[in-house]
Specification:
Elements lengths: L2 H10 L3 H11 L9 H17 L2 E22 L5 E5 L1 E3 L6 E10 L5 H5 L7 E5 L4 H9 L4 E5 L29 E4 L1 H13 L3 E22 L7 E7 L7 H18 L9 E7 L8 H9 L1 H7 E6 L13 E4 L4 H12 L4 E4 L15 E2 L6 E2 L7 H10 L1 E2 L16 H20 L8 H18 L6 H23 L5 H23 L33 H29 L2
Parallel strand pairs: 4-5, 5-6, 6-7, 9-10, 9-11, 11-14, 12-13
Antiparallel strand pairs: 1-2, 1-8, 3-7, 4-8, 8-10, 15-16
Helix pairs in contact: 1-12, 2-7, 2-12, 3-7, 7-12, 10-12, 13-14, 14-16, 15-16
Length: 577
Amino acid sequence: MNTTDIEQTLVNQVSTARLMETNAAIAQWPRHSGTDEERAAFEYVREQLNAYGLETTLLEHPALVSYPLTSQLAIVNDDGRAMVEYETLGTAYSASVDALEGEVVDLGFGAPDDYARQDVRGKIVLLNGLATPTAVHAAEEAGAIGQIFINDAHLHYMIVSTIWGTPTPESAHRIPATPSVSVKEQDGHDLRARIAAGPVRVRLHSHVFMDWQQTPILIGELSGRHSDEFVMFSGHLDAWEVGAMDNGSANATMLEVARLLAPHRDQLYRGLRLAFWSGHSHGRYSGSTWYADNHWEELYDRCVAHVNVDSTGARGATFYGSFPANLELGPFGEAIVRAHTGQPARARRMSRAGDMSFNGIGIPALFMSLSQVPFSDKDTDYVSLAFGKLIGGKMPWWWHTSEDTMDKVDPTVLTLDTQIYVSTLWRLCHDPLLPMDFRPVAADIQATLAALAEAAGDHFDLAATRERAAHLVTRAAELAQRCAAVDASDPAAVADLNRTLIGLSRALIPITYTAAGPFDHDPAWGLPHVPALADVPKLTTLDPESDEYHFLQTRLIRNRNQVNLTLRRALELFAKT
């Protein structure tokens, strides 16, 4: 049986009944990070992996975990009596307060212009959308003493720390010092209307759990027969309440992939390593960050790709048109999704979300959320707009709510999603030649540098950097041709190409996706492409004779040196193939 036949057999063997049974078993427990219920779920998953023949290891580490406990919000009159009370949900990592009172200011979407038009110091701000780290950080920087977020018709659990993983001495000051709560859309609009009619004062109460917890990471391993390399397949096991879709269905997908690939371990060129994280929801990716920090060299030396899975099988999730990826894996993922769904899938640049804790190491990643609910122009609530307007799909309304229960999982969608993951992991682990294509990566870098050069004008010279990027475009095209023509039965030729492909990821991902560098973690907010040079356009807004101009120009010159050297080293890799 050839490899294509084996893959199709594996796809056909995906068991809908087993997926739903596994999903329901995991979703019997509320799974807050570090709790006994979460540990019971980890033990269940470990038992399943052991039964499938994987080698398992249960790791533990301390993490600063947080989740909301109780909250209240009331409009109060001049003598402090409550006039109107709203249903609320607190946010993880926000400050706990008793009876904080203050005037509420309507800040809309909280854009810089919104803060520029009114003074919010000593006030509580009303903001559209989900409670996010960036929104809380901006409010605190402006002097607000609390935040109220207008969700959709449901209250969504969120975590508002900007710190990726466990805080360090350098980042701990960014733990939020103010409370934040969410209200339903109708209540938020009522509060907004009252503010428009005159000053409104509220009393806010919020208690949030925040403490150090021992949290688990479960590793399940299948070894490869020709290489000690491995593909990491990861998803979080912790959840908001029972989290049937987020992330119980994805955990079921992981176990089904393990079940199907385990009998074919002798046919795997490289290994498969499953990683089940805690601390995703309640520690801002503390589990995957700890794993990156404590297994850095092993991951650098041996991990060739990271496939992430989150929230598979949602009812109504029929949109597969866009998914996140490091672009060297984009064409590979697009082909698989198109083959399974018939939709014109498009890889978009990997987002700063999920458990993408491995950018500093330079590990290319594929997927995260896969199937999504289609976005419609009729979707006007702030949560839908946050997700769907740019990519065409969105998370379903029960995402991060108490209503994420088993009735929200569609067996047909879950089966299809799992089949896509089976094909993806089979090919990555079985095929000797890695399926990376650096043409989209090189083109992306070239386009970014061109835009920066145009914005900079005469203020900053990017000629040498752009020249190297142009050479990278040419070499990436040549490399793609060599990969297409290589004799797969020639192990030396395949190994040479793989070394180049891995080396390019190790070099280019850190300069395109990180500002903190290889050994630290950037804050939990979006980063521009090629972050080291992102401030180049700012030079045009400064007086060339000012201190600020010269300070910034000096930093950018040093950053340009870093980018230039990285591009040079990337180009040198081609000469070794």
